[in-house]
C-alpha cells in the first residue's frame, strides 16, 4: 500500500489554478443569468479567487484571459494578487471575439488578419513578462464550415508560421500551451482539432511548446487517459483545462459528470510521473446557474478527491496482477482505490494545513457572499454570451 504520509504530503502540495472567467457572469447562447455580487473587474475576480485559496489551500494562482482581464498596469495587478495571497497564472489569448476573425485568426487567408492575431499573441507574452506568468495558453477558434471554403493544408502552414513567431518571442522559463478542440465554433474542419495536430505543431516548435488537454474538448467515448499517458510519455503534456461535459463543451464542474474518468486521468498523471509543476492543473469552467465561489471550491475539491484516489492505487499489487495476467485482480486493485472514501483523508490534510476540514461550509460561514452582494452592483460578464 502507498505510504499514507507521502500521500498526504503530495495532496497538501497540489496546486490547482482557477480561471478568472469562472468568477464572472456567464451563460449559454440563450441567456446569461446574472448573479448578485459577481466581480465588476479583474481586481474583484482576484479577490474572489483569494477566497477559494484561503479555504482550500491549494488554489494559489489565477489564469487571466486577455482582453477580458485587460488592465492598464499588469505589474500592479500581479502585486495586488500577491497582497491577496495568490499569484497570476497562465495568460489565455483571445483571437475569437473580433469581427476580423470571421474566417479565422492565425490561419486566416488574409495576411493582415494573421498579423493582427500574432500581434495579440505577442502582446500576451509582454503581459506574461509583467505578471511573471510562465504559461501562454493558446486556443484557436479557427476552422471552416464548408468543404472547399479554404485550403486545409495551407491553413496548417499558416498556423505553423504564426506559432513559430510567437514561440521565438518566449523568454527563458516561459512556455506555450496549445489547446485542441474537436469542433465549435467551426463545424466542418477545425485547425487544431485533436491532440495529434497539437502534438505535431509542438514537436516542431521545440521544448517550450506543450499540449494542453481540455477535458471537455473530445468526442463522446474518447479515452482521455490514453491521450494523457501518451503525451506524458513524449514529455509533451503541459497541463489540463479541467471541466465536465455531458454533450459538447459544457464547461460544467470538473468531476461532476464523470468522476471515474477524472480518477483514470489522474492515475495516468501519477503513473506517468506527471504529478509535478510541469503539468499545470487548471480549471476552465463556467457557473451559469450555480453560485460561483462555492462551485469553484467544489471543483477544486473534486480534483483533490480524484488525485487522492489516484495516489492511493497500490501500484505494486497492480503491476503484479498485470504481469501475471490476472485481469480481474488488476481491475480490482484499481477499483479499490477508486471506491475508497477519501474525504476523511482530505479532511485530515486540511486540518494539518491549518484549514477548516469542510471548505464550503467554512466559506459559507465567512460572510464573503453577503459582503460582495452588498458592495458590488452590476457584475461583469465572463466574456461571452453577450
Ligand atoms: C475554448 C476554451 C479555451 C478558451 C476558454 C474560455 O472552448 O476551452 O480554453 O480560452 O474556453
Ligand atoms: Mn479550455
Ligand atoms: Mn472549452
Helices and strands in order, then pairings?
Layout: H1 4-12, E1 16-19, H2 42-56, E2 61-65, H3 74-83, E3 87-92, H4 111-131, E4 135-138, E5 143-144, H5 152-169, E6 175-179, E7 189-190, H6 195-205, E8 209-214, H7 224-233, E9 237-242, H8 259-271, E10 280-283, H9 292-311, H10 315-323, H11 327-338, H12 343-352, H13 359-366, H14 368-375
Parallel strand pairs: 1-2, 1-10, 2-3, 3-4, 4-6, 6-8, 8-9, 9-10
Antiparallel strand pairs: 5-7
Helix pairs in contact: 1-9, 1-12, 2-9, 2-13, 4-5, 7-8, 8-9, 10-11
The structure holds 6-deoxy-beta-L-fructofuranose and manganese (II) ion (2 copies).
Description:
- The protein is an alpha/beta fold and 386 residues long.
- 45% of the residues lie in helices and 11% in strands.
- The protein has helices spanning 4-12, 42-56, 74-83, 111-131, 152-169, 195-205, 224-233, 259-271, 292-311, 315-323, 327-338, 343-352, 359-366, 368-375; strands at residues 16-19, 61-65, 87-92, 135-138, 143-144, 175-179, 189-190, 209-214, 237-242, 280-283.
- The chain has an eight-stranded parallel β-barrel with strand order 1-2-3-4-6-8-9-10, surrounded by six helices. The chain has a two-stranded antiparallel ribbon with strand order 5-7.
- α1 (4-12) crosses α12.
- It is globular and about 60 Å long.
- Bound molecules: 6-deoxy-beta-L-fructofuranose and manganese (II) ion (MN) (2 copies).
- InterPro entries: L-rhamnose_isomerase, Rhamnose_iso-rel, Rhamnose_isomerase, Xyl_isomerase-like_sf.
- One of its GO terms (molecular function) is isomerase activity.
- Pfam families: RhaA.
- This is L-rhamnose isomerase.
Amino acid at each position: 500500500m502507498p505510504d499514507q504520509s507521502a500521500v498526504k504530503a503530495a495532496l497538501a502540495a497540489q496546486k490547482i489554478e482557477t480561471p478568472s472567467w469562472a468568477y464572472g457572469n456567464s451563460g449559454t447562447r440563450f441567456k446569461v443569468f446574472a448573479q448578485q455580487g459577481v466581480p465588476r473587474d479583474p481586481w474583484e475576480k482576484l479577490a474572489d479567487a483569494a477566497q477559494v485559496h484561503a479555504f482550500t489551500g491549494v488554489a494559489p494562482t489565477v489564469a487571466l484571459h486577455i482582453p477580458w482581464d485587460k488592465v492598464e498596469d499588469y505589474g500592479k495587478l500581479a502585486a495586488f494578487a500577491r497582497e491577496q495571497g495568490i499569484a497570476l497564472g497562465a495568460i489565455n489569448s483571445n483571437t475569437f471575439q473580433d469581427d476580423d476573425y470571421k474566417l479565422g485568426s492565425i490561419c486566416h487567408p488574409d495576411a493582415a488578419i494573421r498579423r493582427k492575431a500574432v500581434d495579440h499573441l505577442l502582446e500576451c507574452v509582454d503581459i506574461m513578462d509583467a505578471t511573471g506568468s510562465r504559461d501562454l495558453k493558446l486556443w484557436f477558434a479557427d476552422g471552416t464550415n464548408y468543404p472547399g471554403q479554404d485550403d486545409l493544408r495551407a491553413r496548417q502552414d499558416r498556423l505553423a508560421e504564426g506559432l513559430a513567431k510567437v514561440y521565438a518571442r518566449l523568454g527563458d522559463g516561459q512556455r506555450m500551451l496549445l489547446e485542441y478542440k474537436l469542433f465549435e465554433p467551426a463545424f466542418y474542419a477545425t485547425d487544431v482539432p485533436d491532440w495529434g495536430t497539437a502534438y505535431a505543431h509542438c514537436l516542431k516548435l521545440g521544448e517550450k511548446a506543450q499540449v494542453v488537454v481540455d477535458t471537455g474538448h473530445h468526442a463522446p467515448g474518447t479515452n482521455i487517459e490514453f491521450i494523457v499517458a501518451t503525451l506524458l510519455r513524449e514529455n509533451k503534456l503541459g497541463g489540463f483545462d479541467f471541466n465536465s461535459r455531458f454533450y459538447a463543451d459544457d464547461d460544467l464542474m470538473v468531476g461532476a459528470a464523470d468522476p471515474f474518468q477524472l480518477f483514470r486521468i489522474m492515475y495516468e498523471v501519477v503513473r506517468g510521473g506527471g504529478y509535478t509543476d510541469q503539468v499545470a492543473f487548471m480549471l476552465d469552467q463556467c457557473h451559469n446557474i450555480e453560485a460561483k465561489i462555492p462551485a469553484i471550491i467544489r471543483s477544486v475539491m473534486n480534483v483533490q478527491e480524484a488525485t487522492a484516489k489516484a495516489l492511493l492505487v497500490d501500484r505494486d499489487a497492480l503491476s503484479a496482477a498485470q504481469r501475471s495476467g490476472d485481469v480481474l485482480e488488476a481491475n480490482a486493485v484499481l477499483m479499490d482505490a477508486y471506491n475508497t472514501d477519501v474525504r476523511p483523508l482530505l479532511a485530515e490534510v486540511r486540518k494539518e494545513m491549518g484549514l477548516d476540514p469542510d471548505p464550503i461550509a467554512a466559506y459559507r460561514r465567512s460572510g464573503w457572499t453577503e459582503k460582495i452582494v452588498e458592495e458590488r452592483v452590476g457584475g461583469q460578464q465572463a466574456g461571452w454570451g453577450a
